Structure prediction request, 248 residues.
Amino acid sequence: FEWNHIKANGEIFPVEVLLTAITNEKGNRVIHTTWRDITERKQAEERLRKTENKFSKLFQTTPIWCLLVSIDDGQIIEANQTFFKSSGYSREEVIGHTGIEFGLFVNPDDRKKAVETFYQTGKLHDFSIQFRIKSGEIVDCLWSAEAMDIDNRLCWVSAILDITERKINEQERNRVNKLAAEQEKHALVGRVAGKMAHDFNNILGVIMGNTELALLDCTDEEIRKTLELIYKQTIRGKNLTKNLTAFA
Prediction:
């Protein structure tokens, strides 16, 4: 058993005590006592306990999904509150089961590829994958994992980041950029069309003015008819430039 003893200087230290009943050379039953100073072991255990507490707090409070998964059979040993809250699955539905059993993987082939990558490289880093939460909604995620020995059981320590909102924002940003490019293209077409309409209108103005002057002095009937035809077509051209300007 473990006990606390006091040194000569008054310092208290932990010991491991072993009591053994023996018979001495006189035939009397006596107690043989062995004490072992376990101060260093206790200090190591305390450091380990503090480290485990820190890891446990980090595991439970991190805003990303964290899961401990047995490498041997794929069973989920532990998951953090973020996972349960985001996925909608209960602890009973998850712990002791594989993700395939409760339909977590949208495409089981993606899991197979992730496992192959893990065995080839010894870890997984930002592996793009889709998961299905309990509501049936599909979420886009980045999956990272490393191997760790936990209670003599080799596990995946998985960290999964939900990037669904990020992808939606990227798609929206791409849509806005595409729309802006389209608007710029339309604006360019409009500017070109407006310049063409302006230049064409100036040309028509010269033709119309000269035709009007020619009509004032024209006495030949055939030439007059030709000039009137030119004038009418110029009017049509003017109307066309109005439409082109409106388009611009």
